[in-house]
Design a protein that fits this description.
With 733 residues, this protein is α+β, with helices and mostly antiparallel strands. The chain has 19 helices and 33 strands.
Length: 733
């Protein structure tokens, strides 16, 4: 890890965290359990061991048993009769001492994690759902609505510079009082309406506290349909639920829901599934959303109070099993990076010479075609577009086409005429949400005509409070889609000759595939990008076919600049800690091989994993830290080159920092220069006139994966590729 002094204009700051140092004041003994005959099934092993009360037991994990004392020799071997465990033969268990951890020494983090999970499960009202524990005794019902919020906590133990630390954060689950059966009845048993409302949504089965994603509605299956149980006998879904959970289905013709668990299909009865999340109609209710948002995103002071409560529960119950000390929240010393000035686009006075140069070039524009309803008047918006575009040297004519989803393709094609390559289409949609129309418009413009397009809704343009801001943002997006840069940041000379590559993966697609978005910067402004995507099997996070895209990006860079980049900063978004080894072995190796075979050994690679969905929180004087707050010590991993950076302001509740983990660092920049460069990149996302939570290339890659995964690709068009003339524009913004 490179060491360097902080720049003088970076201020120091003291921050609180949601990390708690933990010390086990009890010696811990690890025993390995062996079984005769061998039991391959983990639940069977646990069932056998649970038949005997083991002295000093802390936690049982697979074949390993952890205790707070030595088990007497006469109690390490025992036999469980077959009749007590439902097996055909008796089972003999033998425990062998394999390890001892003295009091105060470092115990494996997974032992702490299991201990804390057991401590939470000791609370009567706490129920575990996936990795979180929810307190069903403190359910908050939103007055006058069908929604209720179930508070919860998520805990893990992580290695830090201070040793093993408890990382605790509050979470919640939005549940609804209505069941899936209610939606079936509201749809008047209309199967297509029911499918649209349910498929792809998350449901919660309250009889076993589990969440599932509905894959499809099975119209050919009902509660009376049968399946083969573990004992090989046929049993109906209704009878199984009644025997196992005491639930009786009251409606016989409700269609079953197909979900998936551990790679196997699971079938649910709608009557016993509660919907989760907020439906689209209620999202438009400002007062209701304000109430829900206030509870979902607690302010920093309230959040810390809730975290302290949950940590108190963990400490109290853990001390019933072991002698444990939990510290106060760990305090860290951070820095505040100087906030850069952000140039504006639409006033010539605020465009520097460098910026004016980047507004030149790109795709030609001679005509803007506005598609809208005949009785809708977009004149003021059209005037704003013309005035803003002229201020940056772009002159064009405007034509109008009537909004008609059945024939707009022919009308637009006729308006373009022979100058189609210098046209741009602006759609002003009457409806706030029309996925089918949006998809048709984007496929038509991007792949048939191969021209940029922009979509905006009447509702947003006509909003009395936000209308002007929306119009300004739309104009900025139009400029970007023509291959131009509205602004550039003042980068350090060390970044000259550097290419930045961003990558993200979208899994929730209607084509049942995962789509990988990749973007690569093409010059030293970091505002012009080459964009591409990859389609791979659904749910696969690791990308195995990166080499061709990296090679193509390098060739594009050389064509534009006359030489290959000296440095490549690869920003990989969306990877968890458990996948770092695969990223290193597969993705990082593929990128490195592509660079060596194309650009040669003189190009350096630094590979950074970007994680924004984390549980770490930073607090400053009981509130949120300001953008630019940086922490690279104390709560960071003892063996990693990593840091936390707050680069944006939280619109609601408590801000979440982004975690950066540098897996490879051939560039060898001073640490502060890499951190500042990443912070500047967070200011160059052209769909927002401020800083965002991740560097712009990561967000552009996310938008690329989202555009093709959610909108442009279908089962018939999986062979689509980005049109060549649009690859060097940010068409996805």
């Amino acid at each position: 890890m490179p060491k360097d002094l902080r720049p003088k204009d970076w201020k120091g700051v003291t921050l609180d965290t949601n990390y708690f140092q933990i010390v086990l004041n009890t010696a811990v003994y690890e025993y390995a359990a062996s079984f005769t005959p061998d039991l391959g099934d983990s639940p069977k092993r646990k069932r056998v061991i649970r038949k005997r009360k083991i002295p000093h037991e802390i936690i049982l994990m697979g074949n390993c048993l952890y205790t707070s004392g030595v088990i007497p020799e006469d109690q390490v071997v025992w036999t469980v009769p077959a009749r007590e465990i439902g097996m055909t033969s008796d089972v003999t268990v033998k425990l062998s001492l394999v390890n001892k951890f003295p009091a105060g020494s470092s115990v494996p983090t997974h032992v702490f994690s299991a201990l804390f999970q057991r401590a939470l499960s000791m609370e009567t009202n706490y129920k575990q759902i996936q990795r979180s524990f929810f307190d069903f005794g403190r359910i908050l019902r939103i007055p006058g609505s069908k929604y209720e919020i179930i508070p919860g906590v998520e805990v893990t133990v992580v290695p830090t510079m201070r040793g093993p630390s408890l990382l605790a954060d509050v979470t919640n689950k939005v549940a609804r009082s209505d069941t899936v059966l209610n939606i079936w009845q509201d749809a008047r048993c209309n199967l297509s309406r029911f499918r649209r409302a349910v498929e792809g949504s998350v449901v919660f089965t309250y009889y076993n506290n589990r969440s599932y994603i509905v894959k499809r509605v099975c119209e050919d299956m009902m509660p009376s349909s049968t399946f083969t149980s573990d004992d090989g006998k046929a049993i109906s879904f209704a009878r199984y639920l009644q025997q196992r959970y005491g639930k009786t289905a009251t409606v016989g013709d409700q269609p079953m829901l197909e979900c998936e668990a551990h790679g196997r299909p699971v079938y649910l009865i709608p009557e016993f599934c509660r919907m989760t999340g907020i439906d689209e109609r209620d999202r438009a209710d400002y007062k209701l959303m304000s109430k829900i948002t206030k509870e979902l995103f607690p302010e920093p002071g309230k959040r810390m109070e809730m975290i302290r409560h949950e940590v108190g529960v963990i400490e109290r119950n853990s001390c019933k099993l072991v002698n444990l000390t939990v510290s106060k929240p760990i305090t860290v010393q951070g820095s505040i990076i100087r906030i850069p000035a952000l140039p504006k686009m639409n006033a010539r006075d605020n465009i520097s010479r460098e910026n004016a140069r980047n507004l030149a070039g790109g795709l030609p524009l001679k005509k803007v075609i506005i598609v809208c309803r005949k009785d809708y008047n977009p004149d003021r918006f059209a005037d704003d577009i013309e005035r803003s575009m002229k201020s940056i040297g772009m002159n064009f004519t405007t034509e109008y086409v009537d909004w008609n989803i059945r024939r707009f393709e022919d009308d637009v094609r006729r308006c373009c005429g022979s100058e189609v390559s210098s046209c741009m289409v602006l759609f002003i949609c009457p409806k706030s949400k029309d996925d089918e129309a949006y998809s048709r418009m984007k496929v038509f413009c991007s792949h048939e005509l191969q021209i940029p397009s922009q979509v905006v809704t009447e509702k947003n343009l006509d909003n009395p409070k936000r209308g002007r801001a929306v119009a300004s943002n739309v104009i900025r997006q139009m400029v970007v889609k023509l291959g131009k840069c509205p602004w550039v940041m003042n980068y350090h000379p060390i970044t000259k000759g550097t290419m930045v590559i961003g990558l993200d993966v979208c899994h929730t697609t209607p084509i049942h595939k995962s789509v990988v978005g990749v973007v690569a910067s093409l010059d030293d402004t970091f505002g012009k990008y080459y964009s591409a995507f990859i389609v791979q099997d659904r749910g696969k996070e690791i990308v195995r076919d990166l080499r061709p895209i990296v090679v193509k990006a390098l060739q594009k860079y050389k064509k534009r600049n006359g030489a290959f980049p000296r440095n490549i900063l690869f920003l990989r978004d969306g990877v968890g800690d458990g996948q770092l080894m695969y990223v290193n072995d597969v993705e990082m190796t593929a990128v490195s091989d592509a660079i060596r075979s194309t650009a040669g050994p003189s190009t350096n690679l630094s590979f950074v994993v970007v994680k924004k969905r984390i549980r770490s929180r930073l607090f400053f004087n009981g509130g949120n830290p300001v953008p630019g707050t940086l922490v690279d010590d104390t709560i960071t991993h003892p063996d990693w080159y990593d840091f936390f950076l707050v680069s944006h302001r939280a619109l609601n509740g408590t801000v979440s920092p982004t975690h950066y983990n540098v897996l490879m660092d051939e560039m060898k920049w001073p640490k502060s220069e890499l951190q500042y460069f990443i912070f500047l990149l967070c200011h160059q996302y052209y769909n927002w006139d401020g800083s965002i939570s991740v560097p712009a290339p990561c967000q552009y890659a996310h938008k690329m994966a989202f555009l093709y995964g959610k909108t442009l690709l279908s089962s018939e068009t999986l062979d689509l590729t980005v049109p060549e003339r649009l690859k060097d524009t940010l068409l996805q913004i």
